[in-house]
Amino acid sequence: MPPSEHDQYHDAEPRMNGDDEEAQLLSRPREQLEFEDTSPLRNATRPRGLCSGLVPRSPHINTIPPILPTLQNAPLRLYNRLCPTRSSKAATFVLCLSLWALAFVLLLKSQLPIQDGAGRTVINLDCVDTLWRRNNECGLDGVDCRPFSGDSFAFRCPAKCRDVQVLNPHAVGPINVNYRPLVVGDKVYRGDSFICASAIHAGIISDADGGCGQLARVADHQQFPSTSRHGIKSVSFDSYFPLSFSFSMDDDLRCAKDPRQALLLVSLFFTCILSLLSSTSLIFFPIFTLIFAHVSFASDPPSASVRNTSVLPDHVSMFVKRILPAYFIVTVLYWTVIRRTLKGLQAPVEKTVLWLGGFWFGALSNYTFDWIPISRLTAHDLEQQPGAKLALAIIILFLVCIFAQQVYSFWLEGRLPRYLGLYAIFLIGIFICLVIPGLSLRLHHYILALLLLPGTSMQTRPSLIYQGILLGLFVNGVARWDFDSVLQTTDALRADGAFDSALPTLLQPFIRSQEGGLSAAFQWRDPPAGMHGISVLVNDVERDRAFFTDDKVNSFVWERDADLDLPEYFRFGYVKDGRALDYTKAGTLFANGTWIMPSSSKG
């Protein structure tokens, strides 16, 4: 382990009379306070005028008097006796990191390529992978998502896919699915269902460990019932869809479990050892590296290439890409914020529980904060996600209480004016970002952490917790999502969400019986200026795309067989610049020729 701060600044070897270095540090609180940068407080004059109340008459540096210091420092004293020299401490430190790296690599072997019983390479899937892409992205009649049948492949899913949800409305017949797993059917699943969540629903894999299975494409299938299995309630669809799939087990397929639980125990153990057996704040950097690697490869790894044979190359590439700029940022944070909080702290157990525990709590935010009904901090998501506004109000109230507590602590140290000035600059910057035309402000995980971390630069127990959580949020945000821009265009924020575009106004269709079935002719009012064509979805499959200027199109004719005893769902949307915009809600055509007109509001 690296030498303690006492070793660095006093260059003292352990005494033969049994006196302990750490005990000496604890017995000299005045020397410890003088070691902190308190000289500006002794020599500074109190500001006059309006700022006179922002600095107390006798400012002092906050320190944490350890609870049961003898007990807390017992592991460190034992370590100093077993490794009395700097070289032995350094060797122990290298050995500790080497053991962690070895265990980490051995556990990650489960992500290497494997083959099924037929000798075919198993495909790695992400939690949101599907066979059928959203709405019209499969082309007319689904041509870009073929084959519909006669194909099967072995797949491997990661753990924790059960609670992955769609974040924008997804059409499933007459309804729009949002903020729930996209699983349509039971045993046989609609082609746009999440494959991994469907495999959990079918009992092929487990949510805790992930797993492998065989997927077989099934051609045109009818009637997808809704059932609740293994923690997932599937969505029902009472009509037909051109692509569906089912699962089967392969007894010859040996698929290792997802290693994230074992890796968490390994990483927790070694970071706790590093925290308990070091009194220097420089131990922050190896702890940061271990937690960043854990998020990047195990607890919340970024999405890899679609359907690859191994996710490791992608994860290694993204890890190296993201950790280098992250190191630069945390180095600045260390010398300006973190060092002041951890330096000279003589309470290793409290540091481990409060600061390191908070660090892990924030880094595992995809689990620890998953219960909060806020997926993305955007105006669109806050409007459409149930409970988001109330949750945000509670969070803001909680942050205001924390802010008041931290302001008081800064006031006691006489540093309140400079930090109020710093946050005034932050607020001015946020205001400038808000008024830039054509761009929207997006407060990502790492942005929130960077904004709030300066407010934890003091040695108090609350600051240990807050700083740890914010550092964890920074790590999770960067390792998972990269340094995404704080200013984003409307298209980037929308992703697969609504365009808020104009919708076609349908007229009453002309429906007539004919030999072999029904014929329905649909017409619409004149489109607004700027619209180039119209797209028609039938049962969530694009069946027609016509352009006004080329074809002089003003109607769409649909024919259905007489033996089809299922409803069909129609949605209409304008086409502009080569892409379909928002679709109407679903209108329903029944087997007896009855038509229910859709609402003009968005689907």
Automatic annotation (TrEMBL):
Transmembrane segments: 90-108, 262-295, 315-337, 349-369, 389-408, 420-444
Record keyword Transmembrane present: yes
Xref: PROSITE patterns: LCCL (PS50820)
Residues making up the signal peptide according to the UniProt record: none
Top-level taxon of the source organism: Eukaryota
Region named Disordered: 1-49
Record flagged with keyword Membrane: yes
Swiss-Prot/TrEMBL keywords: Membrane, Transmembrane, Transmembrane helix
Biased composition (Basic and acidic residues): 1-18
Ranges of residues in domain LCCL: 183-236
Family matches, as InterPro entries: CRISP-LCCL_domain (IPR051957), LCCL (IPR004043), LCCL_sf (IPR036609)
Protein name from the UniProt record: LCCL domain-containing protein
Organism: Sporormia fimetaria CBS 119925
Lineage summary: Eukaryota, Fungi, Dikarya, Ascomycota, Pezizomycotina
